C-alpha cells in the first residue's frame, strides 16, 4: 500500500471541503452542547443556593469532571484510530452525556452532583477523539481549519441556545426542574453523528485487518507532539471552568435591589453572549488558520483571555463590564480551541489521529482540573481577584510560548503526513 496519495486521486482534494458529513458533525456538537449547557448554566446556582455548597466545591466538581474527561479522551483515543469504530463510539458518548446530565436534576447532595457530572463528562470525553478523527477523515488537509472551525461554531452556538433555554426555564419551572430538560437534545446529536459516520465509511475503505489498540506514544513523540502540547498545556492551566465565570457574574450582579433569581438569569444571558462570540470567532479563526497557520490565532486567543480575566478580577456590579469580559473570553476560546484541534489534525496521519486527539484531551482536562481547583481555592481562601490574576498569568505565558517555541505551529509536517490511500 502506498504511503501517500496524489491530490488527483482524492476526491476531497478536488472539490469543496463542505459535505453532509461535515455538517452532521457540526450539528451533533450543536445539539449536544445545547443540552449539557442547560445544566452548566444553572449549575452554580443549583450547587451554591439549592444545595448550599461553596465556590470551592463548585470548582472541585468541575475540575474533577474535566479531569475524568481527559482520562476518557486518552482511553478513547486508541479506539478512534480504527475508522470503523468512530461512529459507534461517538454515538454512545453523545447518548451517555445526555442521560447523565439530565439526571443531575435528581441529585440531593453535592457528591451525587459530582458523580453524575463526572459520568456525563466521561461520556463526553470518550466520544471526542472519535468525533474529531471522523471529521478530519471527511476533509482535505488544506481545509482542517475551516472544518474544525465549523464544528466549534456548532458547539458554541449550542452553548448560546442552552443558556437561553435555561434562563427561560428557570423563570418558568425553577432551577432543579430545568435540569431535567438537558437530556433531550442528546438524542438528536446521536442521530446527526450517525449520518457523518455513514459518509466517512464511503470515503475510507475498511482496513484489511484490525489494528492493535494502543496509544502509539513513540510515533506521537516522533511526530513532534510534545512541542505542540507545551503552549496548549500552559493555556489550559489558566482555562477555568465557565461555571466559575457564571458564578462570579451572578455574585456581582446579586447586588442592591436585584435578587438572586434575577442575577442568575442575567448572568446566564451574558454567558450566552460569550458563546455567541465564541461561535463567530471559531468560524473566522478556522479560515484564518487555513491561510496563515494556527500559531498567531492561538496567541491572539491567549491575549484575549488575559484581558478577560483582568476584567473578571475587578468587582464590577454593572452588567456592561461583565458582558465585555465574557465577550473577550468567548473570542479567545473560539480562536484557541480551533487552533488546538487543527494542530493535531495537521501533524498526524489518519491512523494516529485518534491517539493524538486523546493525548490532547488529557492535557486539556488535566489543565482544567488544576485551573478550576486552584482558582476556586484561591477564590475561597483569598479573593476572586487573586484567582483570576493567577489564571491570566498562564494565558499570557501560553501566548508568548506558542510564538517562540520552534515547531509549535505544526505546519512543517503537513506534507510529510498525507492521507493514506483508501483503496
What is the 3D shape? globular
Which bin fits the share of residues in helices?
Answer: over 70%
Q: What are the secondary-structure elements, in order, as H or E?
A: HHHHHHHHHHHHHHHH
What is the tally of helical segments? Answer: 16
Folded structure, characterized:
By secondary structure, the chain is mainly α. Helices cover 78% and strands 0% of the residues. It has 16 helices and no strands. Helix 4 runs antiparallel to helix 8, helix 10 (225-236) packs parallel to helix 15 and helix 13 (294-312) packs antiparallel against helix 16. Mean pLDDT is 80; it is low at 1-11 and 409-423.
Which tags fit this structure?
mainly alpha; 78% helix
In short:
The chain is mainly α.
How is the topology of this model organized?
Elements: H1 11-14, H2 20-50, H3 55-80, H4 83-103, H5 110-136, H6 144-173, H7 175-180, H8 184-203, H9 217-222, H10 225-236, H11 242-253, H12 260-292, H13 294-312, H14 319-347, H15 350-381, H16 384-404
Amino acid at each position: 500500500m502506498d504511503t501517500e496519495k496524489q491530490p488527483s486521486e482524492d476526491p476531497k482534494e478536488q472539490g469543496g471541503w463542505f459535505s453532509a458529513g461535515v455538517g452532521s458533525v457540526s450539528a451533533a456538537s450543536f445539539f449536544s452542547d445545547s443540552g449539557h449547557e442547560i445544566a452548566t448554566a444553572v449549575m452554580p446556582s443549583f450547587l451554591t443556593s439549592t444545595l448550599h455548597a461553596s465556590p470551592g466545591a463548585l470548582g472541585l466538581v468541575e475540575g474533577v469532571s474535566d479531569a475524568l474527561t481527559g482520562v476518557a479522551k486518552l482511553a478513547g483515543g486508541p479506539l478512534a484510530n480504527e475508522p470503523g469504530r468512530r461512529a459507534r463510539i461517538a454515538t454512545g458518548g453523545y447518548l451517555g452525556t445526555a442521560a447523565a446530565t439530565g439526571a443531575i436534576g435528581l441529585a440531593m447532595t453535592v457528591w451525587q452532583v459530582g458523580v453524575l457530572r463526572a459520568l456525563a463528562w466521561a461520556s463526553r470525553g470518550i466520544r471526542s477523539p472519535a468525533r474529531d478523527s471522523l471529521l478530519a477523515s471527511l476533509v482535505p488537509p488544506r481545509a482542517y481549519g475551516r472544518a474544525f472551525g465549523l464544528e466549534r461554531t456548532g458547539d458554541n452556538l449550542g452553548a448560546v441556545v442552552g443558556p437561553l433555554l435555561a434562563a427561560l426555564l428557570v423563570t418558568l419551572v425553577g432551577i432543579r426542574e430545568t435540569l431535567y430538560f438537558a437530556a433531550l437534545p442528546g438524542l438528536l446529536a446521536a442521530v446527526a453523528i450517525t449520518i457523518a459516520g455513514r459518509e466517512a465509511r464511503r470515503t475510507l475503505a475498511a482496513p484489511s485487518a484490525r489494528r492493535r489498540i494502543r496509544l502509539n506514544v513513540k510515533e506521537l513523540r516522533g511526530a513532534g507532539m510534545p512541542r505542540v502540547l507545551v503552549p496548549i498545556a500552559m493555556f489550559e492551566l489558566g482555562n477555568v471552568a465557565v461555571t466559575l465565570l457564571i458564578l462570579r457574574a451572578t455574585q456581582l450582579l446579586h447586588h442592591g435591589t436585584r435578587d438572586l433569581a434575577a442575577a442568575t438569569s442575567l448572568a446566564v444571558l451574558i454567558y450566552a453572549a460569550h458563546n455567541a462570540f465564541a461561535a463567530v470567532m471559531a468560524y473566522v479563526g478556522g479560515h484564518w488558520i487555513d491561510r496563515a497557520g494556527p500559531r498567531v490565532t492561538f496567541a491572539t486567543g491567549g491575549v484575549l483571555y488575559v484581558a478577560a480575566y483582568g476584567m473578571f478580577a475587578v468587582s464590577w456590579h454593572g452588567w456592561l463590564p461583565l458582558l465585555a469580559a465574557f465577550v473577550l473570553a468567548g473570542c479567545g476560546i473560539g480562536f484557541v480551541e480551533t487552533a488546538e484541534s487543527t494542530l493535531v489534525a495537521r501533524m498526524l496521519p489518519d491512523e494516529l489521529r485518534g491517539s493524538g486527539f486523546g493525548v490532547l484531551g488529557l492535557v486539556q482536562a488535566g489543565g482544567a482540573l488544576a485551573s478550576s481547583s486552584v482558582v476556586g481555592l484561591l477564590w475561597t481562601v483569598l479573593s476572586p481577584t487573586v484567582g483570576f490574576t493567577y489564571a491570566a498569568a498562564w494565558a499570557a505565558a501560553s501566548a508568548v510560548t506558542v510564538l517562540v517555541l520552534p515547531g509549535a505551529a505544526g505546519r512543517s509536517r503537513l506534507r510529510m503526513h498525507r492521507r493514506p490511500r483508501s483503496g
